[in-house]
Amino acid sequence: MPERSTSWYLVATDDGSDPAYTVTREAGFDLAVKEDAGVILYDRTSESKLTNPYPSGPWSDEDDALSPDNEMEPETLREMGRGYLADQVVEGRDRGLQVRAHLAVDTGAEALSDAVERYQPETVVFPESIEDDGGLLDKVTHDTVADLLADTRARVVLIDDDGNRVD
Questions:
Q1: Whole-number Å distance between alpha carbons of 77 and 152
Q2: Residue ranges making up the domain that contains 158
Q3: Which of 25, 67, 78, 84 is 20–30 Å from 15 (CA)?
Q4: Considering the entire predicted model, what is its pTM?
Q5: Which CATH number characterizes residue 98's domain?
Q6: What pLDDT digit, counting tens, does each position of 72-114 carry?
């Protein structure tokens, strides 16, 4: 396992159903390797107003165990029905990165705000195609999330379909 990272990227990912998230995850891994940062995979697939993706017990969403200092191991993610996320964590670790996983509790701006507050990443990485994702880009760049990102000094990096940064 690599040494503990001092900076973190919050990188959006999903269950593999949207190629834009696969490209974004790969680009996020590449950027983190270059900047010697850790990665927290933000699982967009877990966003829901109706269900909580965390079981009760040590990985409850209200538990302080959810932080960059603690992690759910791939085996735990598999037990939670998130095998795709376990594979992504392993993929990043195989590249020498510190990688954590975050399952969103709630949806949209509220879920992203929770993750940014909890982890205090230096960088938030999303696919450029979120412009077509029910206004998520507006939620990321305006209103409460923008205020939160300004408070945490996190930068937002958008990735195009070819894996390049959009400036």
A1: 28
A2: 8-166
A3: 67
A4: 0.80
A5: 3.40.50.620
A6: 789 988 988 899 999 999 999 999 999 999 988 777 777 887 8
